[in-house]
Design goal:
Layout lengths: L7 H30 L7 H29 L4 H7 L7 E6 L5 E4 L8 E9 L5 E5 L13 E9 L8 H14 L4 H22 L19 H23 L4 H30 L8 H25 L3 H25 L1 H37 L14 H58 L7 H30 L7 E4 H18 L3 E5 L6 E4 L1 H18 L5 E9 L2 E9 L8 H4 L18 H11 L3 E7 L2 E9 L2
Parallel strand pairs: 7-9
Antiparallel strand pairs: 1-2, 1-5, 3-4, 3-5, 6-8, 9-10, 10-12, 11-12
Length: about 650
């Protein structure tokens, strides 16, 4: 059987063996202590036996002397005396001699005695007989005229009679035979007892065919109550045995052994119950102390919850007013008490400080949490949430409100981003789908233009068709470009660019176009070279869009200013022109998609130029700002200086 130690017979055997081995180990410890205390390791066995026998004979000589004196005074005591010291029931051989050498008592005719003891017997003033061992007699005046008795004693050779002398002599012999064996026996018994105890603890609450835990009937009783009952019963039994121990009756010894075994059994039962409680993790929870603590905790928690609920319905301003009023009253009482008993007043002030300090610290921590959360939300971190655990009253409500605001902003931003992504994807997909038929239209319009035809308007219609198709193609390209730029899906290769060289190239590229529109292009270049990092293709597209807008929307006969300068470590490009139409629109609206400065939309353009320029500028690490002052239109582009 796999779990044989969980069976009931195995548990009973382990229980019995554990107690038996424990008793053997306890007896071994007691024997070792006795051996050491009796100095058996330093004296021979014969000397120990002789010393014990002499001590027992000297002790018994008192009884013999008393019995012999009593027998001489009461002749009817002879029968009792003969029975008590009959050679058939004792190994003691003795005779008692008075001062004249007369034998007044004996139980043997032998003349060979190993021990002789003398006693001084006297009668006190009240007629009571007393006697002292001659060795200790100090010549007390009251003992004048006392008689000296001699007691001669020996033991029968071989100790044939079973009495105390033979028993203790054999016991000493057994002790000497176990003198060095007692330690391995004790250790082995202790180890076996511990092993049986461990097996018993492992098998407690277990069944041989199941790994579950099945507590016994004692499991429902709190363990501290069981221990208290056991200790109380032990104390009662101890006093019971103590009261009967000195009677010398055999029943007392039997009772002591039985009660000791019962006590050890009860103790083992307690240990088994503890083992089961540990396995079920109920050792602490199934105690009277724990139950009492839980009840007290629930009571205080209910009281605290009621107080907090009451405070919750009091407005914050009134709560503050009550706290301040209570503080003033407390301080006023302290002033009164301080005159009569300064030490008491100081103690109360310290108590007040310990009560108010945690409140102040708590308030500061909560305000700091709320401040940190508000700052994060104001910076646009919509994922930030204030931890309201541990917050109370208005702090918790305010924290929850800030979390609600953050959550709402997050949802709104997510919705807006989703909408922007959808529009970008729509623009990209539609532009890609339309680009192929537009290319076909342009190609076929060119073929129609080249075909000979008698119709006078044939070529004119073909030119218009190709021109509009080409505009539509540019619009689609701009849509794709602004979509990529705004989403960051455009490759950018940054390299060092010279601002003066770029300005010179732009001036040469757009000078003729400005002349056609009756515009004067004026540039202002720095004396030294200004280098910045940008993608040459993308930066050219930015300025191309800006100058095309300037040529398209500037007032004829006016000037277009283009300059570059250094400001606080940045390379700054500035383009200014005067609009030919009133600019009744904000700068932010101009950078939106499909928004044009010409509200009548009579000019060519898609309204994506500024949006593309702004997205490309930011994609290269720069910034673009637009300002409008009346009809003056100003664009400022900044890049970090390389």
């Amino acid at each position: 059987m796999k779990h044989w130690y969980r069976t009931l017979p195995a548990k009973i055997i382990c229980f019995i063996l554990s107690i038996v081995f424990l008793a053997v180990s306890a007896a071994g410890v007691a024997a070792a202590v006795f051996f050491i205390g009796a100095e058996l390791y330093t004296i021979p066995e014969k000397y120990a036996v002789d010393s014990l026998q002499e001590d027992m004979l000297r002790s018994e000589s008192n009884n013999l002397l008393w019995d012999c004196i009593y027998m001489t005074q009461h002749k009817d005591a002879e029968l009792y005396h003969d029975y008590d010291y009959s050679p058939d029931i004792t190994n003691v051989r003795y005779r008692v001699l008075d001062e004249s050498g007369k034998v007044i008592g004996k139980n043997s005719d032998t003349n060979e005695f190993d021990h002789s003891y003398k006693y001084v017997v006297y009668t006190d003033s009240e007629g009571d007989i007393s006697f002292e061992y001659e060795y200790y007699y100090d010549g007390n005046p009251e003992a004048e005229g006392a008689k000296v008795y001699t007691i001669e004693m020996t033991l029968e050779k071989g100790l044939p009679v079973r009495d105390d002398y033979s028993f203790f002599t054999h016991l000493i012999g057994l002790a000497y035979s176990l003198l060095y064996w007692v330690y391995p026996i004790t250790l082995t018994a202790l180890a076996l007892s511990i092993a049986c105890f461990i097996i018993l603890m492992c098998a407690s609450g277990k069944r041989p065919d199941d790994d579950g835990i099945y507590p016994g009937p004692l499991h429902k009783i709190p363990i501290d109550l069981l221990i208290s009952i056991l200790v109380f019963v032990w104390i009662l039994l101890f006093f019971l045995v103590w009261d009967t121990w000195y009677t010398g009756e055999a029943l007392c010894y039997v009772l002591t052994v039985i009660l000791s075994l019962l006590g050890v059994n009860a103790l083992f039962g307690i240990f088994m119950s503890i083992a089961v409680r540990i396995k079920t993790r109920t050792l602490l929870s199934n105690t009277l102390v724990w139950i009492l603590i839980k009840l007290i905790w629930k009571l205080f928690r209910a009281i605290g919850k009621g107080i907090l609920t009451l405070i919750h319905y009091i407005p914050f301003i009134w709560r503050s007013f009550l706290l301040i009023t209570a503080n003033f009253i407390f301080d006023f009482i302290l002033l009164i008490v301080a005159d009569s008993d300064p030490e008491v007043a100081l103690a109360w002030w310290v108590l007040k400080a310990f009560l108010i300090l945690p409140v102040i610290v708590y308030t500061v921590i909560m305000l700091r949490k709320l401040e940190k959360g508000g700052k994060a939300i104001s910076d646009g971190d919509t994922s930030y949430r204030i931890n309201t655990k541990g917050m109370l009253f208005d702090f918790k409500r305010h924290g929850e409100n800030l979390n609600s605001i953050s959550e709402g902003m997050g949802k709104a931003v997510e919705k807006q981003l989703k909408s922007e992504r959808m529009k970008t994807e729509l623009i990209t997909n539609v532009s890609h789908d339309i680009k192929t038929p537009i290319t076909s239209i342009i190609n076929y319009a060119g073929l129609i233009f080249d075909e000979p035809c008698d119709c006078e308007n044939h070529r004119e219609y073909s030119v218009v068709l190709m021109k509009k198709a080409d505009s539509l193609k540019r619009l689609l390209n701009d849509l794709v470009e602004v979509s990529k730029a705004s989403t960051g899906n455009m490759d950018v290769e940054l390299s060092e660019c010279d601002a003066s060289v770029l300005l010179t190239q732009l001036c040469g590229e757009f000078e003729d176009k400005c002349n056609i529109e009756s515009l004067e292009l004026i540039t202002q270049q720095p004396a030294t070279a200004l280098l910045f990092k940008a993608d040459s293709r993308r930066i050219w597209r930015v300025f191309e869009n800006l100058l095309n807008n300037a040529c398209k929307y500037s007032l004829p006969g006016s000037r277009v200013y283009m300059s570059v300068e250094e400001r606080m470590g940045d390379v700054v490009f500035i383009i200014r022109n005067t609009s030919k139409a009133p600019l009744n629109i904000s700068a932010d609206e101009l950078t939106a998609r499909f928004v044009r400065g010409d509200s009548s939309r009579s000019t060519e353009g898609s309204g994506l130029g500024l949006s593309i320029a702004k997205s490309l500028t930011e994609l290269q690490g720069g910034t673009m700002d637009i300002s409008i002052d009346g009809d003056l239109f100003k664009v400022t582009i900044s890049f970090p200086k390389a």
